[in-house]
Amino acid sequence: MELLSHCAVPLAALFDLLKGQCDGISIADATALAACDNKRIPRHNVFKGYAERGKTSMGWFYGFKLHAIINSKSELLRIQLTPGNVDDRKPMPERCQGLQLITPLKKNMKPVPRTDFDKAILRRRSLIEAVFDELKNLCQIEHTRHRSHFNFMVNLMAGIAAYCLSDNKPTLSLTKVNLLQ
Questions:
Q1: What total number of domains does the chain contain?
Q2: Which stretches of the chain are DSSP H helices?
Q3: Distance between CA atoms of 76 and 153, rounded to whole angstroms?
Q4: Pfam families, alphabetically (predicted)?
Q5: Residues of the domain holding 42
Q6: Crossing angle of helices 149-165/2-18, nearest 10°?
Q7: Nearest to 74 by CA among 168, 178, 157
Q8: CA distance 150 to 170
Q9: Spatial contact of 148 and 1, defined as CB atoms under 8 Å apart
């Protein structure tokens, strides 16, 4: 246990060294990190007081949300971990100062004029979903067998560092975006 508590800080420092640089196009989103299966929520005690019940488009979960900002090369720029019940938009203002927000319009929103570039970027939003897929499936940042807080944090930061070191990241083809203008 003592060793695990000392590993999380160096892994966070490693991420700070490996993270990408902003290249003018940044995409932000959040993904759920379940701490346990929904059936085991009443018996789950490891993250009591830390994890919360939240809802995504895929349904309810108990755990955390990983908020991430990536650049067009799928390099992680910033990350933040929050309880599962935190609104996806809440951590973003402090993370995205001086940026233009481009978001899809909902039915109850007023129309906003969009440039062709804005429309092309919105169609490429699946890039961050591909990043989350690689983080969860290849780097294995999500599983429901953690037995301590330190184990969870070390596993998360090790997976993020592994992703930063990987060579085959999904990318946003800027030439295709420019052709759509």
A1: 1
A2: 2-18, 92-95, 116-123, 126-137, 149-165, 174-179
A3: 17
A4: DDE_Tnp_1, DDE_Tnp_1_3
A5: 2-179
A6: 30
A7: 168
A8: 30
A9: yes
